[in-house]
Amino acid sequence: MLDHKEKIKNWIKTQTKIGKKAIFPLIFLGLISSLIAVGLAWIIAEILGKILIPTYSLQFSVFSLLFFFLVLSVFQGCVLFLEDYMTLKTGLRARHRLRQLFIDHIMQIGPSILRRQSSGALTALIVDQVEALDGYFSRWLPASILWIASPFLILVFVYLVQPWSALIIGLCGLMVPIAQAIFGIGAAIAARQQFLAMTRLQAQFLDRIRGIATIVLAGRSEDMANKLAVSADELRQRTMKILRIAFLSSASIDCAMIMAIILVVLMDGNQFLKSHSVQSISVTNILFTLLIIPEFFSPLRSLALAYQDRARLTGTASMAVELPEKIIKTQNVKNIPFSDQVDIQFKNVTYYWDRQRGNVLHNLNFTLKARDKALLIGSSGAGKSTIIEMILGFIKPNKGQVLINNIDITEYSASSLSALTAWIGQKPVIFNGTIKENILFAKLDASDQEFQKAIEAAAIDQYLPNLPQGIETVIGENGFGLSGGQAQRIAIARAYLKNAPLLLLDEPTAHLDPQTEQDIFKRLIQLTQNRTVIMATHSEQGKKIHGLHIRLNKGAIIDCERVD
Amino acid sequence: MMDMRMNVRQNNSDARSAFKKILDVWHTRLPSLILGVVFSLIALILGLALMSLAGSKVALTAIGVAITSSLFLKIIGSFRLIIRYVERLYTHNAMFHALTDLRIWFFHKLAKESAVGLGFRHSGDILSRLVSDIETLDGLYLRLILPFTGSILTFFILVSIISYFNIVLSFLIAICYIIAAFICPCCAGYLTRKRGKKLIQGMALLRITILDFIHGLREIRAFGAEQRIASLINKNEVNLFNDQAYQVKEVALIGVISFFFGQIAIIFVLMAGLNIGFHGLNALHTVFCLFLTLTAFELVVPLTRAGGLAGQIANAAIRVINVNNEKTLILKRDEQEKAPKYGDIQFKDISFRWNDSQPWLYQNLNLIIQQNKKIAIIGPSGTGKSTLAALLLKVVYPQKGMITLADKNLNQLTDDSVRKRIAWLSQNTHLFDDTIRQNLLLGDPKATDDELWQALSEASVANVVREMPDGLDTWLGEGGVKVSGGQGRRIALARTLLFKAPILLLDEPTTGLDADTEADFFQTLNKITIHRTVILIVHCLTGIEQIDEIWHLSKGKLIKQ
Questions:
Q1: Local structure of residue A44 (DSSP, 8 states)
Q2: Using a CB-CB distance cutoff of 8 angstroms, which residues of chain B are in contact with residue A485?
């Protein structure tokens, strides 16, 4: 295992390497833009020279100079537009790639990730942090090359006309990276902390929003607002810490620039006084130098502005490496052909979420034949849900084996395992959308007939007339607008549509009153026909189901009997 | 889910009233925000002075005029440095204070009308408003108000100084400046106004989809829907990106126009210096004007981009202000009094229905609950048992009749004081992503450890918590994911028991518990509630509860058994 810092470093290195491939157009445009700026400054200096010293002879007529100025301005406009456009494209591509990366990673790990990280934090990672990284790829990476290349290019021109001034500007320019290095270290640490504070705050907000009714009805909204105020203020202080450093570093650039301007003006002024003769050529040169100084410092300024973007990547990196590692695909994972008969065997299965908290499942052994039914009975915390999650492939046993049709479950690819199973939990997740869309989630290409059959079998058609838009009614988050029983029927309809040979039921009626429970059970018993079924329950209704009754206590089987 | 629909409500109120409301929230911050503007204007004037003076100095030297002391230049230079640093620090700090205020105001507003929960609003959408929309609003001050007041000042300085030398030139430059600094940004703002709304909604939609994805990971894996959800996310991202790209391109194009007018202004100054076209300036004035113009137009460059943000900022403001745009059943009442500590509860001739198109849930319902009595309300599901609790908690209001607490009409009592009298456990109680201790402290923020353990053991979950390695400091995870469903339920129960209120309102307290635990719980309930009024809402009784009165609710009627 690499240590945390090393991992962060590696992650950043990989990302930077990929990002660097995309920035060449931006660097090219940046250099062109500097060249045009040199040209524009030169034209202005020439004309001013002519105005100040009428005897000064120009190489071109003033009209052609003005014309060149116009043409170069048009060019510069085009370059500016292209620069904006390429920055956009580079950023979009990078964001898309990173989002994909995180989504794939989370999909690979699957539902068990929710035990370690809150959905608020994960969403913040995929949405906001990825958006915030745009600047790293589209601004910081080009700036990190241009801040040397562009000023160097400009300096070459200044050297050609005013060697002394070039030296002054160059020295003032050198102050900048030194100041950056000093401020930069502090900025990076502060930015990382601010970033983590931001993520924490966001996860906290999401959780409080979801539980808002609980807070309000406990009469605690005032307390909660105060707590949020404290966190928000902490975030402000951290942000200010970063900005203080960022502003200092940009002040150091201003300082270098002002020094360069004053020194150039003073030195050249003294030269004139000493020589007592003003050569028009050197006036032009000084004016050129003066006009180009802001251009010289502008890439340095971009670098300082983009410094925060760099720190953001470090922040995201520290979150990215905290994601649980991808389950390494073993060689023997394969697509196992579908079979409409499923038998299950648990062999000495032991499982723990966390070693310290002890085993959740302890040395389990049982066998279930195809189309047989098993009930998992036990008090809450006995390990019923864990067994079901294991068969769903969300988690893998720490010891022992789970066999499905005599093949180790770890050899099944996710898609071939999910083809075999249908699952109904305590509360179905209702996605953003209509009832119809939520049912069709189980099988997008279901025919109208199949769909109709499923909603009849789940008795959804009985409550549709009470809903404002029937089957097209949009449901709120967590099934708002539907009762617990009505939401559970959606889950049953999904299972009907899926029509899988193995049915897993995890306390499907835990949140329902007895009458609804009875109703739901009637539907469920129909659904269980001709399928292999495992159901976790402690309801009296459920215990009427015939089959293997497995009693669990603290993760161990205490009793296993067949009830017919 | 497949064809996503925005839940973000169309709203009628325009941006202006939203901004007005926001400025209202910020009224205590206004002095410091205004002071920030003053600082930034001083920094700006110093910047203009520095560049023009440096230019003229070279020119003066060039034509051989005696040189004034360079001290002045140095003073302006260093002064500008310091002011600029202070100004940026000050304005940003003032802004972030204001944003914090806005977040708290937002939470209060949300809390005030969310006693029934979020309803059809999505937590992802609300989070988007609370986090990114409010963040966008920092642009209102930092990227719109500050730079535009600066550009107005620059305009007057530029035009008045140049008009001192040459009226025609000042007129031409004024036109260029107005186009570059005002018209272009306004165009950008106008063009992006509509798109700004789409952008913000697109962002919220992406967040909702991704929350759905994370939240529904189990369903997605179980139904093998990985590809589908990935392509849905992709689709929403592409939509968002297209809108962003359009916006950037439009704004960049207008930015080029703005840049171009800056260049034309320079040409005008040069032409004036060369006596081309109109009666010219003298050489020295030309150099001064040129450097002034150059610096002034340099400040114009970011304005178009800021203008492009205006649309987004306006829409963010509307979204933040209209968080509670949902129609709720809440009516305005004049509540002043605090709820009395003790007393009987009386439902007098209550009639209630959820809305006009639905049948009456009850009509002329009467119920008296005497102080310190224990009553049970039983009945089949869907008859409105839980709605009785909602009425008592002032989540909803009866259309007819009234509810009294110690003979005071509930409508005249403040929401908060009523809710503080009632310890309530619902079927959907939320467990927070925090430690067990913090979750329990929501019930009683001042409770000692002993009291916490007491409550846990009353809810018969103390043994489970004791076995956890971190005890009370065990992290519950989101929605209590790290404990089993039944354990989570019992922790919620312990939290309700900690809430030291004279009335205990329990709505199906034992759902999800097995029979043994349920029996345990009712036995403790009998012991601990001697001096409290208890209202137990259940579908049926187990026989263990010691109840003074049993009321049966069915078909809108309450019958005492």
A1: H
A2: 381
CATH architecture of the domain with residue range B15-321: Up-down Bundle (1.20)
Range of A180-194, A224-238, B250-264 with top mean pLDDT: B250-264
Is the separation of the CB atoms in B243 and B311 below 8 Å?
no
CATH fold for the domain made of A8-320: ABC transporter transmembrane region fold (1.20.1560)
Label residue A214 exposed, middle or buried (CB < 10 Å: 0-12, 13-18, 19+). buried
**Any idea where the domains of chain B sit in the sequence?**
15-321, 345-560
Residues B490-536 pLDDT 10s: 888 888 888 888 898 888 887 767 777 788 778 877 777 778 888 98
Cβ atoms within 10 A of the Cβ of B327, count? 9
DSSP for B85-116, written as a single string: HHHHHHHHHHHHHHHHHHHHHHHHHHHHT-TT
- pLDDT per residue as tens digits for the range A365-404: 999 998 899 999 887 778 888 899 899 888 888 889 999 9
Q: Domain A344-563 carries which CATH code?
A: 3.40.50.300
Q: Write out the CATH class of domain B345-560.
A: alpha beta
How far from the centroid of its chain's Cα atoms is residue B231's Cα? 29
Asked whether the predicted pLDDT for residue B406 surpasses 90, the reply is: no
* Average of per-residue pLDDT values in chain B: 83
The DSSP line for A66-130 is HHHHHHHHHHHHHHHHHHHHHHHHHHHHHHHHHHHHHHHHHHHHGGGGGGTS-HHHHHHIIIIIH
End-to-end, the C-alpha distance of chain B in Å comes to: 47
Interface of B with A in 369-398 (CB under 8 A): 380-382, 393, 395
- List, for residues A281-337, the tens digit of each pLDDT value: 677 888 898 889 989 999 988 888 887 787 778 878 888 888 887 766 666 778 888
Nearest CA in chain B to A500: B223
* Out of A78, A110, A128, closest to residue B217 by CB: A110
A255, two tokens? 């300082």
CATH 1.20.1560.10 residue window(s) in chain A:
8-320
Does the beta carbon of B157 lie under 8 angstroms from any beta carbon of chain A?
Answer: no
Which residues of chain B does A70 touch, with a Cβ-Cβ cutoff of 8 Å?
263, 267
In terms of CA atoms, which chain A residue is nearest residue B4? A433
Q: What is the largest CA-CA distance in chain B?
A: 112
Best B107, B121, B431 member to test A by mutation, with max A CBs in 10 Å, is B107
